[in-house]
Design a protein that fits this description.
Length: 162
């Protein structure tokens, strides 16, 4: 099996993001292969700052390795209105279940705060991923040029109470 499609082989920890993670999260967003080519402009100047991390429920997936843990992905849950604002997995870590792990964690966080639904406006290449992890298509977010010159699928995670 290639490393791109192998399951998680080392322990993954999900922890709350902290201000010192901001630069690494920004690099993860800007370096995402999903935003190459025509999509590059959407993240070219994007910044995940310490203020953003403090204002939202941002969590990182950290892999155990010889460097004390590398950020493999992250998500940000906005509570009002409920939205999965960001979800990124490092290119070299994709296909190993980390995105699915982050979504499950997000759903647990949403449930703990009393949310019953969480909206997500998907990047076009991520549409199939959101279908696979249980999100339901609810509509289309229309283009907003010049920042985002294309329509995007809109999804919703329904959060069952326990």
């Amino acid at each position: 099996m290639s490393s791109r499609t192998s399951p998680i082989s080392r322990p993954i920890t999900i922890r709350r993001a902290v201000a010192r993670d901001a630069k690494r999260l920004t690099r993860l967003v800007r370096g995402s292969g999903a935003y190459a080519g025509k999509y590059a402009a959407a993240v070219a100047g994007y910044r995940v700052g310490p203020d953003y991390i403090e204002a939202h429920r941002a969590f990182v997936a950290v892999g155990a390795d010889e460097h004390g843990g590398r950020i493999l992905g992250f998500y940000s849950l906005v509570l009002a209105p409920p939205e999965l604002d960001l979800l990124f997995v490092a290119d070299e870590a994709q296909g190993r279940g980390i995105g699915r792990l982050l979504v499950a964690h997000m759903q647990s966080e949403a449930r703990a705060t009393g949310l019953d639904r969480v909206k997500v406006v998907s990047h076009l290449p991520a549409e199939d991923f959101y279908h696979r992890v249980g999100a339901v298509r609810t509509g289309t977010a229309l283009a907003n040029p010049p920042a985002v010159p294309w329509d995007r699928p809109e999804f919703e995670f329904r959060i069952p109470s326990e």
